[in-house]
Design goal:
The complex is a heterodimer of chains A (about 325) and B (about 525). Chain A has about 325 residues and is mainly α. Chain A is built from 15 helices and no strands. Chain A folds into 2 domains: about 1-90; about 110-325, MetI-like (MetI-like fold, Orthogonal Bundle), CATH 1.10.3720.10. Chain A is globular, with a radius of gyration of 24 Å. The two termini of chain A are about 15 Å apart. Chain B is α+β, with helices and mostly antiparallel strands and about 525 residues long. Among the domains of chain B are: about 40-60 and about 205-285 and about 495-528, D-Maltodextrin-Binding Protein, domain 2 (3-Layer(aba) Sandwich); about 290-495, Dipeptide-binding Protein, domain 3. In chain B, about 30% of the residues lie in helices and about 20% in strands. In chain B, the strands form 7 sheets. A 7-stranded mixed beta sheet of chain B has the order 10-11-12-1-13-21-14, sandwiched between helices. In chain B, strands 4-5-7-6 form a 4-stranded antiparallel beta sheet, covered by helices on one side. In chain B, α9 (about 305-310) packs antiparallel against α11 (about 355-365), α10 (about 315-325) runs antiparallel to α12 and α15 packs antiparallel against α16 (about 470-485). The two termini of chain B are about 20 Å apart. Classes of the chains: A mainly alpha (about 325), B alpha+beta (about 525).
């Protein structure tokens, strides 16, 4: 009872702040758990960095020397905590494969991935929300049906197909845009837009298709509620019903969709990066896993996990703020 | 016949090899239409200018310019062929020619080698090349704990020292008539010694181009070295190498004129590229070969008759046609390529023969045989398909092959030399001695089959120290015959190097020792 009262008191004083703090705490715990899992998974893969780096030159003698040099003979747990201690002091460590500081390896690639992310997100989110709203508003109209069919076909076709179609039409046939994204540090911004155009469009196409359907579904779900019927019965116009009555209540589910797709735009770009030879984090991660370069794998995984967890936490927080019922989960 | 230039590319001694032998693989045949439009090449004089843009199918984010580390075509073309030089190089015709060494002399016992270093050569930073740089560059790969791929090749060096202002003397523990060839391998790039330390990472070399930018796994760019010691090479003003790992992306880059040449061409679409106007496809016979090694310490493969049965039970033509799409030459169960001066040309070509396979199985006292064959995507594209082909072709002989698809990652750590029968490959080595010693001598840590033969080892050591080419040839022919008859490995084919380039690019005979014209594409090619 006492505990209940204390909690109640606490919640009633700073309900949102305390929930948000708790979410952030949970996010940090999740991040730590991800680092343990990634570390364990790389350990579980057959062969280690020494063998992977030496390839066909991996004589037992050479492997033993390289292991010694890379410190791979230390116990796994000790290596994990050493890595964690370095990370907490702000040092990402050095690549096992070529001895370069991981922060150097990441710098340009992280900037490239963020650039692609920002371009695709800014273009796709407003477009998707507007289209989703429009579809819900004019539900069952020709516009709605066309949008739905196109979105469904885009979602059902593999991402690389969309990429190849775009390359075939806009690059190989008409020569409008480069087929591979030769993005360089120090490039003028308009040139960056130009070379990143096709990868960004590919990502946008998929994200818009998903978001459009999710937004539409979320709003239609809300539109089925009694208070909407009430609004319609009292003669409110359709557009006003959607924008003023349905949308505020649909914000929470839409926020979750937005968060998932934003996370997807950062972590799910491996295929797009491969098809367009875009020098982002995806290729770095693939290479690092191949070479069992656990230091780089950990660094990239942490970036991806941080992005994913941040967006999800933000989505949670937005839902909490928008929906007073969630402030009292046990009530 | 300039149209056939590529067919000659790895001939060590033109005229000594029966050219028809090359054409038994389909490569020669498919080349004829491909090069039909290029008859004007020979008449072209190289011109200076332009930026060479190459799209490589290799390149990794872990690449650096350290010559002791394992490297693929992107990295080695950059480091060995574009930024730095070696003492010697192998010409497209297969001869060892001077690079930074003006000349080299050998003592009659083939133990003492004296290299005379070219005078007046400067590194990109203005430092003059000295014999001390050469000694440091070679010593960089020596020592028991060294990780360099060249360590075992240099293990026989007793002493290496400078001698006067322009000479480097290498004394070997045992005679080696091929030591001068060793100085051409990609690891033995000559780097500058700066403040007593060898500079292996910056890319400063004596080579035809200076490095401007190197983003590992993405791109490398550079400009022509105005002080390059060769005035008859390096025609481009600048170069730009890009790592285009995805085969479709690479092909598209060529089609959209984002690059001028791609290495390699994608086997699935190479026929379509050939038909496209404005593009040329090239294909060069090499020493790179595919192998099915058998662990002779394991029960069925300990018996030479069983090994022979398997050698007859595989269709090599099918391997060349289906796995290599015709871009290769059939093998004869020894690793010496037809282009090698010591190639045993009188050894009959082994073919697919079910009766003989059955006969040898019977000699081994077996009526049928069950074996597992491991493969993965790691050794070469189509490797698992090659195992499946083996299974199909061997079945009528009463040999039941169980194909095991192994994970791509860690194939060379966990499968190779661990499973009794598997699929793999060997990159070509510049001399017969190098490949025979590496893979088949009993002391080698790369002897993948544990096959040991004292007579083989003895002949190999003898031949290595001989300077008389005819006496050497006799021994190498016998070594090839031993592998052909008793050897532990089915060698189905030698694979060609392929690529495609814009018709605006010109080149002479393309070298078949390594990809990208022996890594020297930026030095040897030019724009029309």
């Amino acid at each position: 009872m006492q505990e209940f009262q204390r909690r109640n008191f606490h919640v009633s004083r700073h309900p949102v702040a305390s929930l948000i703090l708790r979410r952030i705490g949970l996010a940090l715990v999740t991040l730590l758990a991800v680092s343990v899992v990634v570390f364990a998974l790389v350990q579980a893969l057959p062969s280690d960095a020494a063998e992977a780096l030496l390839g066909q030159n991996a004589t037992p003698q050479a492997v033993a020397h390289l292991r010694q040099e890379l410190g791979l003979n230390e116990p796994v747990v000790a290596r994990y905590f050493a890595w964690l201690a370095r990370l907490l002091s702000g040092d990402l460590g050095r690549s096992l494969a070529n001895g370069l500081p991981v922060s150097d390896l990441l710098r340009d690639r992280l900037a490239n991935t963020l650039f692609l992310f920002l371009v695709s997100a800014t273009a796709s989110l407003p477009l998707a929300l507007l289209l989703g709203l429009a579809c819900a508003t004019w539900r069952g109209s020709l516009f709605d049906r066309v949008c739905n069919i196109v979105a469904a076909s885009l979602i059902s076709s593999p991402q690389f197909l969309v990429a190849y179609l775009l390359i075939y039409l806009l690059s190989v046939s008409w020569g409008l845009f480069p087929s591979s994204a030769d993005i360089r540090p120090g490039m003028a911004t308009q040139d960056k837009f130009y070379v990143a155009f096709l990868p960004a469009v590919t990502l946008c196409v998929i994200v818009v298709a998903y978001m459009l359907r999710m937004t539409r579904a979320a709003i239609l779900d809300v539109l089925g509620n009694d208070y909407i019927r009430m609004a319609i019965l009292k003669g409110v116009k359709q557009r006003r019903v959607v924008v003023h009555h349905a949308l505020p209540n649909a914000i929470a589910p839409i926020a979750i969709v937005v968060a998932l797709l934003l996370a997807y735009l950062i972590v799910g770009v491996v295929i797009v990066e491969t098809v367009f030879v875009y020098p982002g984090l995806g290729q770095l991660l693939v290479d690092a896993v191949g070479k069992r370069d656990i230091v780089v794998v950990q660094a990239v995984s942490m970036i991806f996990a941080t992005a994913f967890i941040t967006f999800n936490t933000l989505a949670d927080i937005v839902s909490i703020i928008c929906n007073p019922r969630l402030l009292y989960p046990r009530a | 016949m300039p149209g056939f230039e590529n067919d000659h590319s790895v001939y060590n001694a033109p005229g000594k090899i029966n050219r028809r032998r090359f054409l038994t693989g389909a490569a020669g045949i498919t080349l004829v239409p491909a090069l039909g439009g290029t008859l004007a090449y020979a008449a072209d004089q190289p011109k200076r200018g332009g930026t060479l843009r190459v799209g490589f199918g290799t390149g990794s984010t872990v690449d650096d310019l350290d010559p002791s580390r394992v490297g693929e075509a992107f990295k080695v073309t950059l480091a060995r062929g574009t930024l730095r030089n070696n003492l010697t190089e192998i010409s497209p015709a297969g001869e060892l020619v001077p690079e930074l060494a003006e000349r080299w002399d050998v003592s009659p016992d083939a133990r003492t080698w004296t290299f005379t270093i070219r005078k007046g050569v400067e590194f990109h930073n203005g430092k003059s090349l000295t014999p001390a740089d050469v000694v440091a560059s070679i010593n960089y790969h020596r020592g028991e704990t060294n990780k360099s791929g060249a360590r075992s090749l240099l293990a026989d060096i007793e002493e290496i020292k400078t001698d006067g202002p322009d000479k480097v003397v290498v004394v070997l523990k045992r005679g080696n008539a091929d030591f001068s060839y060793y100085t051409s391998i990609f690891q033995l790039q000559i780097c500058p010694e700066i403040d007593g330390k060898l500079d292996v990472l910056s890319g400063i070399g004596t080579g035809p181009y200076k490095l401007t930018e190197f983003a590992a796994g993405v791109r490398a760019t550079g400009t022509r070295n105005p002080n390059y010691f060769r005035s008859d090479r390096a025609f481009f003003d600048a170069f730009e190498f890009r790592a285009l790992l995805d085969a479709t992306a690479r092909t598209n880059a060529l089609l959209t004129n984002a690059v001028d040449v791609i290495v390699p061409a994608d086997m699935q679409t190479i026929d379509l590229l050939k038909r496209r106007a404005g593009l040329e496809v090239f294909s060069v016979p090499t020493r790179h070969h595919h192998v099915f090694p058998m662990q002779v310490t394991n029960a069925p493969f300990a018996n030479s008759e069983v090994r022979m049965a398997l050698k007859y039970a595989f269709n090599r033509e099918a391997h060349v046609q289906k796995i290599l799409k015709g871009f290769g030459t059939i093998g004869n169960d020894h690793p010496i390529a037809p282009s090698d001066p010591f190639y045993a040309k009188d050894l009959p070509q082994r073919g697919y023969d079910i009766d003989k396979a059955k006969f040898h199985l019977k000699q081994a006292g077996l009526s049928k045989l069950e074996v597992s064959l491991s493969g993965s995507d790691s050794p070469y594209a189509g490797c698992v398909d090659a195992c499946a082909l083996f299974k199909e072709y061997a079945a009528p002989a009463g040999i039941d092959i169980n194909v095991v698809r192994e994970p791509r990652d860690g194939y060379y750590a966990n499968v190779w030399m661990k499973r009794p029968f598997l699929a793999s490959y060997w990159v070509g080595r510049p001399t017969a001695d190098m490949i025979l010693t590496t893979v088949y001598s009993s002391g080698s840590s790369f002897n993948e089959t544990s096959w040991k033969n004292p007579r083989f080892d003895q002949l190999l050591t003898e031949a290595r120290a001989m300077l008389d080419q005819n006496a050497r040839r006799e021994r190498y022919v016998e070594l090839q015959t031993m592998l052909y008859q008793d050897g532990p490995t089915v060698i189905p084919a030698f694979a060609n190097y392929t690529g495609a380039h814009s018709s605006k690019l010109r080149h002479g005979q393309i070298g078949g020792n390594a990809e990208a014209d022996d890594f020297k594409i930026a030095e040897r090619w030019w724009f029309a």
